[in-house]
Amino acid sequence: MINKVDYQRIATEEAFITKDVLDGYMRLLQDSSFDDPGFRSLWGYFGTHQSPRARAINEALQSLGDLRLGHMDAAGIDHQVIGLTAPGVQVFDPATASSLAVDANDQLAEACRKHPTRYTGMAAVAPHDPINAPKEMERAVKKLGFRAVIINSHTLGHYLDEPQFAPVLEAAEALDVPIYLHPQTAPPSMIKPFVEAGLEGAIYGFACETGLHMLRVIVGGVFDRFPKLQFIIGHTGEALPYWLYRIEFMHGAAVRAQRYESMKPLKHPVGHYLRNNVYITSSGVAWQPAIEFCQKIIGVDRVMYAMDYPYQHVPEEVGFCDAMTIPDADKRAFFEGVARKVFKLNF
């Protein structure tokens, strides 16, 4: 039974895939020269494994219609903010990636037009195509009505603090849309010990890789160069809120000692950027201690709900969050208010 509440439940990190992107993944799996153990583990499972879990997720990812809407209704989800699943188009060559991003955005936009009170889109882009990516971002925002950009963490082992991605960051700031920094498996240079222990995915590896990426963006001075730029990270902050005290201490010590040529002084402490340039979702963590901690450390106005559909589609988790013993105003902000502000929702 769905709880009756006085807020709308907006889920802000929900995934889909197009047939062409999925077909592209299957071709990469068959290409013996494509050396990416993380990708092979992730899509070797969700793309080809015959377990009920893998088949159900594969089917749900491809649905932007009745199946997805039925799952939303059964769980009490009023609205999904949807993005192309990991690793998005970022594993393909730049030209192929840009073409697939355009098509994926068109398909998602059509679903949003059909269901304007149920879906909002995040734009897929090819960050490694810095000429076309800003153009597609502008098209997706201004013509398709998307309210964010989704980047599935590293692009072929490269991170957004690197200079070649500046046009993408500049475009996001100019368009006034956030970048959802969504996880994917770590690049070959760091994944071996994760794969050996079965820890490369959502159980732990995603958080390590995406937390690293977000921290690189912060300590690399991205927000000093683009002060109005906003990011979103999931899974209660990819562990960064819990490490913040030590991160700030050790970052300050390293800067003062001039230990690393790459680590320059920032205008503010690391926590300032988490509280002013980063939003956090609860995706996959329907657990009051973690959610409440993030609200206390980062701010009630910076933390919002997500389910992580269809990867962690557990309808009962919505009730767990409904039952949180936090102030009613904070709960409404968590489920609805913050998402409306971040994504400029007006349905």
Q: What does it look like?
A:
The protein starts with 9 loop residues before the first strand and ends with a helix. The chain has helices at 19-30, 37-48, 52-61, 66-75, 94-114, 132-142, 166-175, 188-196, 205-219, 222-225, 240-257, 270-276, 288-298, 316-322, 328-343; strands at 10-16, 79-84, 119-124, 148-151, 179-181, 231-233, 278-281, 303-304. The radius of gyration is 19 Å and the shape is globular. It has a single domain (10-343), classed as Metal-dependent hydrolases (TIM Barrel). It has an eight-stranded parallel beta sheet with strand order 1-2-3-4-5-6-7-8, sandwiched between helices. It has 347 residues and is α/β, with parallel strands linked by helices. It contains 15 helices and eight strands. Helix 7 links the parallel strand 4 and strand 5 (179-181). The mean pLDDT is 98. Helix 1 (19-30) crosses helix 2, helix 2 (37-48) crosses helix 3 (52-61) and helix 5 packs parallel to helix 6.
List keywords for this structure.
single chain, 347 residues, alpha/beta, TIM Barrel, 8-stranded parallel sheet, 15 helices, 50% helix
